[in-house]
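User: Second chain of the day. Same drill as before.
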Amino acid sequence: MLASQRRSRILDEVRRSGAVRVSSLVEHLGVSDMTVRRDLEMLAQEGTLRKVHGGAVLPGARSTDEPGFAAKSHQQTPEKEAIAAEALRLVEPGMALGISGGTTTWTFARLLRDVPDITVVTNSTQVADMFSREPRPDQTVVLTGGTRTPSDSLVGPFAVSAIRSVNLDVVFMGVHGMDPDSGFTTPSLMEAETDRAFVDATRRFVVLADHTKYSVRGISTIAGIDAADVLITDSGLAEEHRNGLAERVGDLVVVRPGEHARGADAPGEPTA
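Assistant: Same format as last time:
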């Protein structure tokens, strides 16, 4: 088992029970005490759990907590790469795309740099910077104005006004959390308004969210679960949660981290 897979399973267990003991993780994962403690230390540094004597607990994140871009960019990397590769299959030359802020959409933007003849409208300074590193004459990138958030998104009335002035083929959106009751959420009231403008401006709404976003609730709802035309997540999501989401979204696609390394011809697994 890869270290990233092991840490993902540790996080899943913490989220299910609220706390874990080192001894139980040693038995469950079949690794040494030292390996588990190193994993817990790494996850604690990322802010995804809090170490306590003999184990770890949930960090007690509040609905308005918003980690910075740098902190989130090192979390669930294999999952984000697989999700981004699957999302790329939905893009064709000539499209006008909306891309919201977030580290998953930023990972997706890296792949988009090779797609010809596209227009990208984004409120993410990180996404815009990704395209500016190797500009192409057949790509147009529009960065909205607005007030900058800790996740390097531009929000507020300037961003909303810019987004409302365009018509997009597809919007790719990263979210802070997804919950059957609360829908897709964000810890920022202003970011929620900006993201809702993206949803209103597009013909197809695609959410990119790894399994750790499930049951996380930000203070403000962007859209209900059933608003998503496509939801791309990863195989770390429990089967019962997949089934519940599949009944609500237009199309649920579950990817397996690592498989997309073979190339874009390796599709994810649609869930009926």
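The radius of gyration is 18 Å.

User: Great, on to the next one.
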